[in-house]
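Weekly modeling sync, notes
Attendees: AB, CL, MP (scribe)

Item 1: holo prediction request
CL wants a bound-state model with adenosine-5'-diphosphate before deciding which constructs to order. AB pointed out that an apo prediction alone won't tell us much about the pocket. Agreed to run with the ligand included and paste results into these notes for async review.

Input as submitted:
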Amino acid sequence: MTRLLIIGPPGSGKGTQAEHLARHFKVPAVSTGEIFRSNVSRKTDLGNQAAQYLDDGHFVPDHLTNALVKDRLLEGDVMHGFLLDGYPRTAPQATELDAMLAASGHALDAVIELQAPDAELEERMQRRAAEQGRTDDTIDVFRRRLDLYHRQTHEVVSVYAGRGILVTVNGSGDPGGITAAAIAAVEQFLAAPQPPS
Ligand code: ADP
């Protein structure tokens, strides 16, 4: 049973890769961004509280995000494994996730970091803006999200690197090739985990 995370900057194709990887490893993909967007469109309480943060490219406050993930990880389908996409994004969220997993006697098996140069991310975001019309896909909002990624989410990546569970994948190029490379890298890691550095 596999518990995985995928972390990557906005526009890195994280959501697409999460879906393919989840199918391959036969675990549900849990995307905090998707859950927020679905709540926003259904105008739930959570959606109404989160909407402005999403539109502005800010992180939704940790207490809302943590509560959402805590509830989701208590559902039956994720008991035996999951692929978390978009969480944790801040150091306090990473601490909170540790506590949630420890409470159920579980731990993460691997963390996938998808890397791509900023210029390529911006180009992809502009393509996605034309295709999907997401309200947070404008240049200013995108740059804020990218900046937040560099300032806050890198720290989360370092935590997992220090634990020796980080698998870095080159996210440039064609999506099918990236999926294949990610699967190969994760399988190799799971077969022979590295000792913490
Ligand atoms: P992307 O991968 O393009 O950044 P996501 O779908 O993962 O997009 O997230 C979209 C938005 O949802 C984020 O910009 C943020 O406002 C909110 N969000 C998603 N996950 C989190 C999180 N873990 N903490 C805070 N905000 C989040």
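Recorded for review: The chain has a mean pLDDT of 94.
Action items: CL to compare against the apo run; MP to circulate these notes.
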